Write the structure tokens for this entry.
Amino acid sequence: MIRIIATLVAFSFCTFYSYAQITTNDSTAATKSCDTSGANSHYLSIGREGLKLSNKIRDSIRSTRTVTTHFLMFDLGFNALQDGTNYSNQDVQQYLQVPGNKQNGNLYSLRQGKSINVNIWPVLLDINLLRNRSQKISLYTGAGLQIYNFRFNKDISHLNNSSPMVIDDSVNFSKNKLAFAYLSVPLMVNFKTKVSSKLWVTYGLGVIGSYCFDSWTKQISDERGKQKNHDQFNFQKFNLNLSGEIGLKGYIRLYGTYQVTNLYQNTMSQNPYAIGIRFFGV
């Protein structure tokens, strides 16, 4: 996990260095190409009003800066599960090695305050689509790390010996966690609408594609101490999330995600979702 985060941070600095060089070169080129003498000098630029002639060189330079690099966006929120499993299905009953009266959605009840979602987006590219005095629209993408932690109330264990299964364990866990780590790529459309001289409402929506590079359980009990088990179990490697955000630029921003793909490869039907606070948003 530490290696993954370190790699993403290193990638951020490399991207920043490359982008700084490109921006400097573009600005210099624009200045040189428009540098003429005489009182009647004009500059052709593309702005919010389309093509126009201007005697302001800064308009030409601004038009080249359609892509900006944004460093470090951080999400902190809570997870939950939408359970659509048919618990009367024979395959589900075979997968859940628990007493019949426990084969229901309550088996996966969560300690909601301890089921934490953490997303780290070290570098994002923000592509300007529209910009005027009262409205800004941009498209942003990049790469990041999504971590989901599910803390269970019940003493269940995920196993993958001869085949994946869930059992009703014989010990009382003080901590029973299932966690996932995803390498994720977002594609978001962001809107900013000016509502007063210094206040912008920001909102957006999009999708996030992810690859699960690690899944594990962590259990703590008096009988067994602390145990970790890294395994794929019966979970999907790839997923797709719908994502949205809303807030006040510079003050507060909320985010939400909903996984449209099933968490499991087969048998069970569960879709995680998360909601929380976004820091340093685009």
